[in-house]
Amino acid sequence: MPQESDFLSGLCDFLYPRSPYYGQFEPEYLIFNANLQEFAQRVSYISSLQSNGKLSPEEAYKQIQILWKQLKRAKKELEIS
Q1: What is the pTM of this model?
Q2: For residue range 13-35, what is the model confidence (pLDDT) as tens digits?
Q3: Contact 11, 54 (CB under 8 A)
Q4: Cα 26-77-40 angle, rounded to 5 deg
Q5: What does the H/E/C string look like for the chain?
Q6: 56-60 long-range contacts, CB within 8 A, separation 24+
């Protein structure tokens, strides 16, 4: 069982890598950093799908635009200037 857990943990780290945060230590900055990393990861997936012909350029653009609006909303809700 521990081997399966290690495998899943490694797979999760591979699919959703996280970089350490080196900025000013404020809870809202940490939350925004996590949101920003998730945004970057999703944009990477979308662009890869579009490059490989799985998504049309228009659909990729729409999905990235939705993610961008979500990120802007999160920034506004966290009251980050």
Answers
A1: 0.75
A2: 666 666 777 778 888 999 999 99
A3: no
A4: 75
A5: CHHHHHHHHHHHHHHCCCCCCCCCCCHHHHHHHHHHHHHHHHHHHHHHHHHCCCCCHHHHHHHHHHHHHHHHHHHHHCCCC
A6: none
